[in-house]
């Protein structure tokens, strides 16, 4: 049981460390109780911690625009910025940083390609992948399961969806990681420059992916979008390339973390793991509870377009706002015993981990499908799985993406 208690000596707003995601939950709880909305000087953001306030903000795109969702938290130094300007990267967003009417127009077209039947078609391939990866390490008796399973599986799936050939996978992955660090990380000027160079390469790669589909139509996401464009749907080459640029990023680490956080929580709460081994039909609800309790993305951003009152606090026009979904997900007013991990929770799927409103995650069914398949195959093949004792869990240093760096397990 998690006995989360906030710091008794500091106010939540002082105890809140935006880039440290090791165990932010006690401070979140303290903030919900004492200061549900506070201003964080380090980020220059209002931080919102209660379920209903977060949901209301997600639900009102006019007053709370998502246009800042992809902006770097730290100012980009002039050299790196010039490089990105020249590379055509300024203001680039697939969907999450856009607003209507462009958002509505592009999302409608992209949704036709991101549909359940395309995801379902992938299920047998996802299962084959999961089985072969598990079989590759199952003789070892112990492994870092992030490295041997959780990292590569969603990468392969998103690359299948985007039609990126196997030989390009490692290269494209390393570029895509630069995106996380440059946007949500805390880099030095020199580091920014290296990552900016990577982003330009990554963006050029996505543009080439679209150009190739025009020459050779393919049965994948960019192929579909190029086909819709030819049929008269209003979407530009730059918008299609931006979707690839975003989806590669949105669809990988988030799902790696869902699988990694999931295995970790299930093994810490061992009875839950055993229950899934006995009753695999409980897995889909367990995936929802993992998303609620240990979300891959603990925070997301909005900016107020006018003065607004949220939770009784007045937020001036033009304010940057950080929504702590990782906190809202444990809000006792919405989730009874919210600090407890319970795979049978009836309303687990009410979590905010994939957003809400017009930007609700388009890849949600795919991420859940991948996690379900992985848990089905793992519980079936390695029911004795347990966490290697005495390990400390490290999480990448950034504001939003809560991903265990490694997860040592044995059986
Ligand atoms: C556990 C996995 C995932 C999590 C936690 C997650 C979370 C999120 C969140 C928080 C948003 C922003 C929602 C908002 O602003 O209201 C979002 C949007 C989005 N996600 Fe995901 N996501 C995941 C997996 C995926 C996958 C696998 C894909 C693609 C294959 C994907 C594609 C997208 C896209 C395209 C958007 C933008 C939607 C829009 O703005 O209209 N996501 N996701």
Q: What's this model, at a glance?
A:
This protein is α+β, with helices and mostly antiparallel strands.
What does this structure look like?
By secondary structure, the protein is an alpha+beta fold. It has one domain (12-410): Cytochrome p450. It has helices at 12-15, 25-34, 51-58, 78-86, 102-113, 116-137, 145-150, 152-162, 169-184, 189-215, 221-230, 237-250, 253-268, 270-278, 283-293, 325-328, 364-381, and strands at 37-40, 45-48, 64-65, 142-144, 299-304, 308-310, 313-315, 320-324, 386-387, 408-410. The strands form three sheets. Strands 1-2-8-5-3 form a five-stranded mixed β-sheet, with helices on both faces. A three-stranded antiparallel β-sheet has the order 4-10-9. It is globular, with a radius of gyration of 21 Å. The model has no long low-confidence stretch (mean pLDDT 92).
N- and C-termini, Cα separation: 23 Å
Uncertain parts = none
Mean pLDDT: 92
Helical content band:
40-55%
Which shape, going by the Cα principal axes?
Answer: globular
Largest sheet: 5 strands, mixed
Provide the domain count: 1
Based on CA atoms alone, the radius of gyration comes out at: 21 Å
Count of DSSP-assigned helices: 17
- The helix/strand class is alpha+beta
CATH topology: Cytochrome p450
CATH 2nd-level architecture: Orthogonal Bundle
Q: What's the CATH class, please?
A: Mainly Alpha
Cofactors and ligands:
protoporphyrin IX containing FE
Strands, count? 10
CATH superfamily: Cytochrome P450
Q: Which series of helices and strands comes N to C?
A: HHEEHEHHHEHHHHHHHHHEEEEHHEE
Proportion of residues in β-strands: 5-15%
Strand order of the largest sheet: 1-2-8-5-3
């Amino acid at each position: 049981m998690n006995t989360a208690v906030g710091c008794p000596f500091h106010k939540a707003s002082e105890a809140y460390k935006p880039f440290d995601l090791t165990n932010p939950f006690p401070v979140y709880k303290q903030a919900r109780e004492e200061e549900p909305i506070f201003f964080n000087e380090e980020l220059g953001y209002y931080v919102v911690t209660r379920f209903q306030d977060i949901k209301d903000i997600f639900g009102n795109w006019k007053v709370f625009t998502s246009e800042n969702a992809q902006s770097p938290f730290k100012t980009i130094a002039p050299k790196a910025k010039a490089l990105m300007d020249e590379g055509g990267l300024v203001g680039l967003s697939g969907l999450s940083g856009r607003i209507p009417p462009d958002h509505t127009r592009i999302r409608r077209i992209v949704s036709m390609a991101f549909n359940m039947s395309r995801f379902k078609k992938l299920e047998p391939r996802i299962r084959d992948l999961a089985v072969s990866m598990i079989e590759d390490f199952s003789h070892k008796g112990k492994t870092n399961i992030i490295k041997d399973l959780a990292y590569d599986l969603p990468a392969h799936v998103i690359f299948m969806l985007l039609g990126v050939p196997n030989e390009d996978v490692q290269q494209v992955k390393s570029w895509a990681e630069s995106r996380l660090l440059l946007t949500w990380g805390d880099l030095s000027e020199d580091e920014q420059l290296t990552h900016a160079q990577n982003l330009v390469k990554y963006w050029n790669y996505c543009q080439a992916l679209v150009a190739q589909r025009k020459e050779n139509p393919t049965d994948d996401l960019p192929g579909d979008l190029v086909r819709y464009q030819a049929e008269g749907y209003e979407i530009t080459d730059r918008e299609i390339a931006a979707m690839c640029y975003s989806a590669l990023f949105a669809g990988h680490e988030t799902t790696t973390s869902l699988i990694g956080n999931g295995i970790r929580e299930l093994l810490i709460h061992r009875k839950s793991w055993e229950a899934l081994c006995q009753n695999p039909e409980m897995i889909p609800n367990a995936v929802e509870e993992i998303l609620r309790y240990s979300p891959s993305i603990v925070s997301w951003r909005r900016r107020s377009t006018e003065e607004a009152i949220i939770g009784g606090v007045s937020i001036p026009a033009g304010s940057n706002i950080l929504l702590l979904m990782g906190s809202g997900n444990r809000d006792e007013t919405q989730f009874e015993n919210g600090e407890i991990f319970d795979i049978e929770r009836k309303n687990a799927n009410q979590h905010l981990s994939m957003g809400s409103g017009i930007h609700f995650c388009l890849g949600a069914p795919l991420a859940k499908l991948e996690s379900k398949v992985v848990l089905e195959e793992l519980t079936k093949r390695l029911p004795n799985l347990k966490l290697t004792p005495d390990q400390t869990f490290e999480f990448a240093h950034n504001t939003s993406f809560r991903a265990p760096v490694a997860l040592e397990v044995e059986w």
